[in-house]
Amino acid sequence: MECGFSSPLSLITMDWPISASVSPFNGTWPVSEEPINDWNQTVSAEFAVNRKLGRAWIDVKVTTERTTEGPPPEELIMKMVEGLYYDSARKQVLYRTASEPIVCAEDATFLWTTHLKSTGQCLLKPRTEQRKVDDGFNLRDQAVAQVLFEVQHATASQGMGGAGGQVTSPESGIRK
Known about the structure:
Structural class: mainly beta
Order of helices and strands: EEEEEEEEEEEEE
Shape: globular
């Protein structure tokens, strides 16, 4: 459905926290699952924070690419993850575990702007899959995009990376 406005609509939704108790300390579990309706939709994820309140979450963005002028419309979904928080003294996004917190991201400054830089210890992995959906009348195929949260043990050899990712619907491949 098209709107008569020249700028795209951006929707923001918030979901209930994902419980860390469903996953082991060193594991992977889904934090988001969104249907993709068009071949030109992409899903990406990154850490986000409120530095004043010490809160951290995952921003999942569903973007619909288009060939017309202007920025593409996008939907922002804020996903709370139990155990994920921002430590303003350390300037880090931490994931609480039974033994010790894991540093997921750290504040970094570029051109007087502060942003989060991943440590590679908490990966956000977008992926898509085709599923059969039963609406009570018919079966149909539906592309579904997931964002997986993967916690890894900290090691000195792990480099930066895995700050977030982007995936497109199955017909158009994967973007990194």
